[in-house]
Each structure stands twice: as C-alpha cells, then as structure tokens.
Automatic annotation (TrEMBL):
Signal sequence range: 1-29
Protein name: Carbohydrate binding domain-containing protein
Organism per entry: Congzhengia minquanensis
UniProt keyword annotations, A-Z: Hydrolase, Signal
UniProt key word Hydrolase: yes
SUPFAM superfamilies in alphabetical order: Galactose-binding domain-like
Gene3D superfamilies: Galactose-binding domain-like (2.60.120.260)
Keyword Signal among record annotations: yes
Residues annotated as domain CBM-cenC: 39-154, 193-311, 343-455
Source organism superkingdom: Bacteria
Amino acid sequence: MNKVKKLVSILASLTVLMTCTQFVLPASASVLTDRVLSKNGGFEDNIDGWTPGGATCTWQEGGADGSKGCVKVDVINGFNDISQKVNLEIGKKYYITFKAKLTEQNNTGKSAPVTLLFSYDNKKTEYPIQTKYDLNHETWTKAEVIYSPKNEPDNYGGSAKMYIRVGPQPQNEYSFDYYLDDFYCVELNTRENLLVNNDFEYGTVGWNPGGCIVTSVDGGANGTEKAAKVTVDSGKVNNNVLFTQSVSLEHGRYYELSFWAKLEQGETNKGVVLMNHEATGKTENILSNISLGTEWKKIKLYYKYDNTSDTGTHRMLFRPSDDSAVTNYFFDEAAIRPVSDDEVILNSDFDYNTSMWNAQNAALAVSDDTYADSGQSLKVEAQAGGSPAQNVSLKAGESYTVSFWAKSDAALSLIPKVGETALCEAVEIGTNWNRHTFLYTPEEDVTDQPFTFEAADGNAHTYYLDDVEFGKSKPKAENISVTGNPLVGETISVDYTFDNAGLSDEGESRYRIRMADSIFYEELESGTTQSGKPVTLALTEQFENKRLVIDITPVDSNGVVGKMQTIALPRIKRAYEANISFDGTIEPNGAIKPLATIVNNTSEDKTITVVMAVYDANGTMRGVVADKQDAGQFGGKAEFVFQTPVTLPEDVTGYTAKIMIWEAPFGKTGITNMVSLLDSISYQNE
C-alpha cells in the first residue's frame, strides 16, 4: 500500500475520542520514520551529551534562527573539538546537518572552512564535509550532507566519534573559535524507499540536478510542508534536464515507482518516466503520455529489473515533456519501493491505473467511486465468467490474509479464487462499500496461478474493488484511538485493537514516543504494551510548542512482528493563548484601558471575560472595566475592544493596574489556566 493510502487508512481506522478531531496531521511518512541518532542537537538549555576535546565548550544564549541557545567552542592549542559518539552501519544512509558561525570577525587573511569527521573506533576516519563551507561571524552557515560509510568493514562502520573542526587544512595550521547549533545525525529510512529526502523536508540534499535549478519550496503534495521546484536552465529543454539520485536495483525484483508532480503553468500530455542504467548508459522509457496540469497529481507504476549484465546504479528520470518544450515543474514524495516478498499482489489500491491486473473477459478502468475518499478504485465490467486477474505464487502451509473493499451496482456473490480453488465461501457484495477479510492457507505450493473474483451465478456484472490486499499474515495494530487534548496540562492516551486473523494472541507489542522541535523526531520514551492497556503521557510545560509522534508495533505471542503504525499529533499548545496589553499609562489625570485577544484551543466553546482593575496604594479598587466575548473551540478567537477607559485622579502615587482573565462570565469563580492570567503596571514615581 502506498504512503498516501496508508495515511488514509490510518485516518479511516482512527477512532478519535473527546476533543481530538484535529489530532492526526498530514506529515511526510519518511520524516516520521527517520531516526535521530544524535542527542541534544538543539542546545536549547545546555550541552549535555556532548564532549569537549581540546577545547572549552560553554552554553550560550541566542542560537541559530532565534532559537534559545547554542554552544560556544573556544580553541585550545590549535584544536576545537566538540564530539558525540554515534553508531553507523555500512549500507545505511545518514543525513547530517549543523549550523555554525565564527565568534568574531575573521581578520587572519585565511578562510575558515568547516570539516565534519567520523573517527571510527580503532579504524580509519572519514570526512563527509571538508572545505565546502566558509564561515563568517555575521550569519549562521548551514552545512548538510547525506552520507554512507564506505563498504570496508575493517576500516569503516560501527561506533564513531562524530565531530567538527573549523580552520584550514592541514590539521592545526589555524583554527577559529565558533558557535555551533542544530547539529543532527539522522538515520534515513530506506527499507521501504530507496530514495532519500524524497519529500524535500531536508531541502534538496541528496538530489543531483543537471540542466536545471532546483529549490525546496513550501506547499508540498498530499499536505506535506515542502516540495522541489525544478526550473529549466536558460537554453535547455526538458528532454536534456536531469534531476535524480542514484540507487541500486536487485535483479528479478519488482519495484513500485511513484511520485507527485504538477506544472508551474499550462498543461501537457507528454510526460514520461525513464530508467537510466548508469553502468551501460542505457535508458528505458517505462511510462509515456502522462497528463499534467497545475494541480498535484500522483504517478505510480511498477518496474521489474531484469538485466543481469548491468550491476551498477540506476536513476529514475521524470520529464513533464518528451519534446523540445521548456516546462518548469514541481516534484514531491518520490519513491522507489522494493516490493516485499510478503506481498502476493501488486497495485492493490488502483490509485493511478490498472497496471499488473489482467482483464479476463472483462473491461477494467479506474474510478473515482471509492470508500472514504481513498483515491481511486477498480471498476470491473465483467461478462459471463469474467474477472480481473493477477498471477500469484503461494507456499504450502503459509497463512495468507486476503482483504478487499467492494460494492456492486446490484447485489451479487463473488468467489475469490486462485486457479480453480475457491479461497473462501461466496462473499455477498452489496450496493454500499464494505470490507471483506479472510484467511487462506494452501495445502500445496502454488506457482503463477491467476487470482480472480468469480461471480457465483456465472452472469455478467458490474462491480468495484479497492485495496485488494493479499499477503502473508502478520499481526496488525488497528482501530487506533487517541483520548485527550493536545494541550499543556492535559493527559493523552493511545489504545488500539490487536488483530492477527485468529492465528495467535498478542505478545509484547512495542510503543515509542518521539518529540520534535521542528522536523527531527528524537526518542522520548519507549516500552512494551498491549491492546486494552493504553499508553499515557502527561503533557507538562516541556511539551509546549513541540510535536509528538507515537509508534505502535504489534508483536504476537510467537514473536512475529507486524508493521509499525505512527500517529502524528499537532504542536502542543496551551489551552488559551492570550495577547494582552494596556492602552495608556498610569499618570496624573490619565486614562487607561486594556487591549486583549484570546485564542481558545480547547474542544469546547468558551465565554471569556477580561477585567482590568485599578488599585490605589492601599490596595483599594479605584476603577474597573470588564467585557465578555465568546470564543469557539479549536482556535476560536475573542477580540476585546474597550470603548470606555478608567479615568485616573491627580495623585496616582502607588497606583497599580491589573488585567485578569476569566474562563466564564464576569463574577463567576475560577480563574483559568490561560497563558497569561495576570499582567500589571504601576506608577513610576520620578
């Protein structure tokens, strides 16, 4: 199932209780599953987790991009080393980024390049970044790289000291004092997608443009934050523009290729997808005549790599036009996904086309008639004995779960079959969408036999299928529910239903809670859990303005591990956000009134009262103004505009004015947990 459909499926199964109708947000699937290896990369409060080496390292206020803090690295004897241990595996890819600037103006006449090093324990040292970025003292410089250790286990890989050095090479010739912030080492998830930074949440690092300029822009496809904009160089045309990254493909394996694209302007029906084999220079045209306009569209196809003579790397190319036209375009959510051996069929969701399915005495077409706005479905116009079909291979004694959504123009009975063998009793298909799931265990091996849907009465019928899944049975975490408000001071809990098609009970399933300041999710806590025993988390003040994701990985009593499901929460807010101030000052014969805007982030409509009281030196109230406004749930705003101020006397010595906020009409008890409960000013006696 592709990323878009996965998100839709999570949304469809998510039972949100109480106030959480806005809980699950669209988010990049790859970013959510990337793993941060480094610790305390933001240096928000201290430099815990980092080790100075030959340098004096101190925490400083004022980090990059207005953040709270950073670290200052002072050189000692030509070294300027602050480090952290990480474990890197050969064959995996890592995104490393940091921001740095000099502590003072560089008057040495020498450049100040920054070098990133990985010094492996009892092995060699690698330099992913060297002499590429020249630092200055006025602006923060962002450095980033996608890196994989060399495939030499005796020399590279394993535990490594990760650190940076600022100054020209060779080592110790000259070094500079500098500030460091936002240092992250992120293990990229390439198990389900060979492409890294496929959603451009990390900018355009990892991608290689040719004949074009590529920038990361806001407003990605499918609700994600970022996308790539490809602008064709002057004098170039689309058929000699490249924007790619290299991957290795395995002979004989199917791959699902997908991406989202749209044009900057106009429309075309001449888009193409190509596969370039870098070792031989051969380029295959694997999809043609793609229609695109200025709205995001998903493209998906399947590709099997069969050339045994080409063992090098490969590049998937997309061009919005195969002729001499010059077309700028946007590109996002690109994926080259190896099809798992556990997946029996391909193109289960029909989101782009009917590829991989054969029509046996039937007409097949994609349709917008779907369950829960899930993309597209398969419309089957079957003649007598007709069916969609896809060849499958099964292992004797292995349990397979078959699941599909279906509806029909008129009620009918369908019999799912492999070859001539019925997989279950006839399934009753109605005129509304319903999901059907059953378990099948073949007694003998099956090799390349058609998987079909046979009408029990043998007549012609028109019906629709969607999310036709056929795969080895594994435990699932379904019906995920989140209870509670994503607000400071509240407690949330997450529960789910364990399902393993009746094969086994639940064992020690796993949960993990991760937290992010921006796009980097660092592990907060983890442990084991079971369905019916909710995972709870109290949202203390440390979570304010942070984002959380909660991972559930089902495990059955036999130790079989299912697929991790991830729930993404919005940024944690306070129940109320208040912006209050005074119009006027306390001065003889003056006038003063409050200004206030209150945002209600709770799940209930609220009546908010703002009160400003003026007190004399003895604490006696000498004037008051109050007003109430309604603020709707989930971000409703109450704006207070007071027409009449409090008039002050000639002698205001010791006077104080206070603004107070009630979560109720004036006079009711209970001052609330708003962001600012009280603000005051007093007379400045000169």
